[in-house]
Structure formats: C-alpha cells, structure tokens
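tool=predict chain=A
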Amino acid sequence: MKRRLLMSLSLAATVIAGTSAIASAADDRHDNGHPSRDSATAQLLTKVARGTSWTQSTAPLKLNFETYHPQGMLRVGDRYYMSSVEIIKPTTPCNPACDGYDRTPGEGLGHLFEFDQAGNLLRDLKFKDGDAYHPGGIDYDGRYLWIPVAEYRPNSKAIVYKVDLAKFRATEVLRVDDHIGGVVHDLKNDRLVGISWGSRTFYTWNMQGKLKGTTKNPEQFTDYQDCDYLAEGKAACTGVASLNVGGQSFQLGGISLLDLDSLTAINTIPITALSAAGNSITRNPTWLEANGNALTLTAVPDDSQSTLLTYTTPALS
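tool=predict ok
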C-alpha cells in the first residue's frame, strides 16, 4: 500500500479567495508555456557574458514567515511559489556506510509555499513520505507545478509530484531509485527531465512516468539547484559550486541556458554576487525573466528568516 502524502493548507480563506486568480494565470500558460516571457528570456541568456553586471535593483523584501532551507522558486502572475526543506533531525555521516548510504536519513518536512509580492505567506503544502521529505527545484507548465521530493542523501530515492495550483493539491506521478534534486516539464518534447544530486545525471521520463533514458551531465561548472522551462526546448538552470581557494571556502554561483534536446549547456555564466550573509545569490532558488532588453534575477539565497533579492542586468544587445 502506498504511503500517504501529508498535505495541509494554511489560511483556508485565502485558498478560496485565490482560486480564480490562479486558474486564470494557469489558463494563460497551459500547453505552450508563456511564449513572450520564455522566448525573450532564452534569447537574452545567450547574450549574457562573464563581464555582465548584475545590479541589485530593488530593496530586499523580507519574507514574513519561516522559510527553512529554500530550494526552488517561480512566479505565476502576482504569486510566488517556493519549495523548502524543514530539517527536524539532521543527517549524520555513516562510516562505514549504513545500508549502502553515506549518511543517515535524518528527519524533516517538505514545504511548498505560496506567498504574495509583500512577502506574506498565503498557503503551505507539506510533503513527507517515509524518509522522503526534501523537495527540490520546481517548474510550472501552465497547468501543473512539478516538484520532486527526495531523501536528504545522494543515491537514494525520490517521488515526483504534480501540483494543481488552483486546488493546491499534489498527485504522485513517479518514483525514482535516486535523489532527484529538480524537475522540468519539457513541453517541446512532452517529457519530464530530472536532475540527480549535484546534477551529475539527467533523467528523462514520458508523461506517464516511464523512464526513457539517463545521460551524464558534461557540465562541471556548477551543481544545478533550480531549473525552469523556457521556450523551444530550453531551460534556465542556476546553482552553485562550493570551492576551496587558497584555503578559503568560496561559493561560485552560475547560470546555464540548457538545451533540453541534447542536455548540454548553450551558455554558462559565473555569478559572483553575494548576499549580506555571504552566500552566492544563486545558492538557493531563483527566478529569471526578461525585462525589456535586460534580464531580472529574483533570488532567495539565505535560509530561515529570508529576504527576496532582485538583480537586473544592463540592456543586452
């Protein structure tokens, strides 16, 4: 018997009041994503270079709720959706390995937050299935939000869910014998693309959840944390590499424009900007979109009492 997904809704009155707005936003993007936003974002990402500056364009927005450890984020209309893992008992290393794993499973609870542009929490969908409580990077196809929930250790297990935003209800789609840290609905090829722990392996499944193939990720620059589908079979992926430079640890952020047909990067850009807490701005979830001829990056790089940061490039010719 399948174990039951624990789901709870916060602020029930808001759920009822917000249903029609979410349904309207979903109707605008169903089947073909959001062509104007997606196409322009993909085109501008081909023009970003190492020397492109990212300037903080608005004041930091305090999120008025406990955010725990954010993972993936996107915006639909005037609402933000962010996945996060609440750690109740941390994992601990196993030496020698315990049951084939390098660490214990720990304990926790997954969250999918919906919040408004003032940083107020509207709804909270919770996830836990045995040792699977770690949600990853998320994607939205105009009808469903896609979210993986995995054990908090590599080479483990994961479940991929689709979430109906109007009802704020999750449905299990597939189970995987690996940690899946992010998922994208590839609308061009009508399939799902998942990334493993550290994004070392790409998985592809059909929409019924049947595995179609695995591909080693040739990109060694960053570990993808959050990926969002863009038009014509592309995805915007962001992440971070934890490096040791001269005995000092350093987080180097990065953005990749990923070609979902070949599962290779078209353009990869280092990001050196840091939050006030010293974290790379692409460490946790991000959301990229075109703003005229410029790109806007929205990010939540810090844990717990987080702030939402917004950065903009100059016009990209």
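Helices lie at 12-29, 35-45. The first strand starts at residue 55 and ends at 56.
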